[in-house]
Write a structure and sequence with these properties.
This protein is mainly α. About 70% of the residues lie in helices and about 0% in strands. The chain contains 14 helices and no strands. Helix 9 packs antiparallel against helix 10. The termini are far apart.
């Protein structure tokens, strides 16, 4: 979503974000307060999405299509290409968090990470889908286009020199990964944080920061780092796979399956994503698909998800 939204959509989005960013709604909030914040934010987000749908179809939020909600609303927005595939995934995760909050807040079942899911989904809506390419220049416009290309070439030449010197130095992202693999977690964290501080687009560094956070039991930071990695590099399959594993560990098998599925679509050669997708499907009772994916992934820890063979009678 952008600043050009209709006023009612912008107001609804701002209300949704306020619900989950107000003081007292952080990770230490009492479960009923957090649950109320998440459900209120989802209702406001639905209002914003309906207004976006109405603006995109030239209608009104009060028309039948504008009265859609939940998954149907997200699916329709995606069908009309008013949101990206990654935005749709995050919105569906937000909707599931709101469902959990509505049913679990009174029992103290709202996880702090659900607030982070809500915030991440709302933040993603600030990013509009890519605009269609502009028509090719013709006639006198071709001269301007050639001039622009020439300027870009000059910029790229200068940028190439800077890029060479940048990578001639030791790369903090690669060093951080090596330190993590050597078991030097504290050093790895500092090095990877330095890589991200110098270049916020280092999505792989964020994935490893998320792994470190999970190792240390900081689920909220792991969620935040992975969400940032997905926003920065939406085609990075490993980030989707790691998000799936974070959610799988929480028992959110439905959402985990969505991220594993996205990871396998982005990188069909990722055996881990395929095997873990099978595990999620087995947990959800889809044995046929799950066993097929686990077996198709080959040997690995995911084979422990396979159901035990029936005992002979």
């Amino acid at each position: 979503m952008t600043a050009g939204l209709p006023p009612d959509a912008r107001a609804a989005l701002d209300a949704a974000r306020a619900s989950v960013s107000a003081p007292g709604n952080g990770g230490s909030a009492a479960a009923p307060d957090a649950g109320a914040a998440i459900t209120a934010a989802w209702r406001a987000a639905e209002d914003a999405l309906r207004a976006l749908l109405a603006a995109g179809r030239g209608g009104s939020p009060h028309e039948p299509a504008g009265m859609l909600s939940g998954q149907a609303l997200v699916r329709e927005l995606r069908r009309r290409e008013l949101i990206t595939l990654d935005q749709a995934h995050l919105l569906l995760a937000f909707r599931d968090a709101a469902d959990r909050a509505a049913h679990g807040a009174a029992a103290g079942a709202v996880a702090p990470v659900d607030l982070e899911v809500a915030r991440t989904a709302l933040d993603s809506l600030e990013q509009a889908p890519a605009a269609p390419p502009a028509p090719a220049a013709t006639g006198r416009g071709q001269g301007s286009a050639i001039a622009v290309v020439a300027i870009l070439l000059l910029v790229l030449v200068g940028g190439g020199v800077a890029l060479f010197f940048r990578f001639a130095r030791t790369d903090d992202q690669e060093r951080g990964i090596a330190l993590y693999q050597d078991g030097k977690r504290a050093e790895a964290r500092g090095t990877l944080e330095r890589a991200v501080a110098s270049d916020s687009t280092r999505a792989v560094a964020r994935v490893y920061l998320a792994r470190i956070a999970r190792d240390e039991g900081d689920e909220v930071r792991a969620q935040r780092e992975l969400a940032a990695a997905i926003r920065t590099a939406p085609s990075l399959g490993i980030a989707h796979r790691e998000m799936g594993s974070l959610l799988f560990a929480r028992g959110d098998y439905t959402i985990a399956r969505r991220f594993y599925s996205r990871a396998t679509a982005l990188d069909p050669a990722d055996a881990s994503a395929r095997g873990l997708l099978g595990c999620a499907e087995i947990r959800l009772g889809d044995l046929g698909a799950g066993i097929g994916h686990v077996n198709g992934a080959g040997p690995g820890p995911w084979t422990s998800c396979l159901p035990a063979p029936a005992s002979p009678r």
